[in-house]
Specification:
Number of domains: 2
Number of helices: 11
CATH superfamily of the largest domain: inorganic pyrophosphatase (n-terminal core)
Strand order of the largest sheet: 1-7-6-5-2-3-4
CATH topology of the largest domain: inorganic pyrophosphatase (n-terminal core)
Largest sheet: 7 strands, mixed
Length: 360
Amino acid sequence: METTNQLTASPLVLSSSNKVSETKSNSRAPLLDVIQELNLSDVAIFTGAGVDPDGLACGLVMKAIVEKFGGKADIFYRGTFNRPQNKTVREILGLNVKSYADQDWKNPHYTAIISVDGPGEILPKGISPCIIIDHHKVGKPGTEGNDVRQNGSCASILWEYAMAAEIDFSTDAGAILATAICIGISTDTNNFKEEASTKLDSDAYAFCLNHKDYASFLSILNYPKPPYYNDMYCYGWENKLKSETGTVLVSGLGPISEGRSGVISDLAEKYCETDGINTTMVLALVKDEMVGSMRSSNPSHDVNEYMKGFGGGGKRGAGAFRMKLPGITDGTDEEDRQRIFDAYFAIMAKKTFSFASDES
């Protein structure tokens, strides 16, 4: 199935000297030749600001490309595998990925650094990527080049690179790649409901859907949710505040464990699907941090910009943040933790209602 000559999204590709870097033979994968010319003997691939299916797919595809060119690579993630879907993706697809936090980045031994589905600014301090391939806004450029496009999913962009590198999707390994790309695209485009979804996303998804491993694909789609999800859904719904119009909802889960914090973003999505609600914020206290996840179907609400005000980020319709709260230590009892959370929850609700009102 040949679709690359039909794609219309335009990449923004900048080299470190601010010159356009583009290959003649692979205009839809403009940094492929640059990647091939790197020292690929020991590559570190970074997969974005947090664990999600899109970033995991991008890392897996880039690793396959590096190996196709005779190199080897490690895939690194930032954050934790606290969402059941991400755990299922890792288990079903057999992903061998490493945590940023478990490595010493003061004297890295890697011969090349590649960042996918995330800007260079989120890499460990002192680490500068050679290549950045992303679908968010342009940030600090890679030393050898950026390919940054406003696109629904970054996995779709990596699919173009895989096609240009002539990765064989008909093999068992190719089926795993196709499965990962399908899940990455459907997740980041919210099953193509996101305004940012493009023809590139649909073309990549259609191709990979025809090459996926069906059993793996079905297992990931039907990932098991732990029983506490239902309890927290009910608790969060009861502990909610609404704006005067009723279209904006802010929910508080209170103190929860790190292992259960994946529910925060899932509930933000679920509550946003409720009739009459177009913007949701779900907040919880995880250890000593206020953790929030926001979703909005209102195109006038730039969630990414709002989340940046709390040290987080995302995209226009979805984002998250983690913010350390003062006054909480390991010795703080549950009653005081709840009291501190309640105080900041009231502040965040007021700010969120003001943001939604100002943007309406």
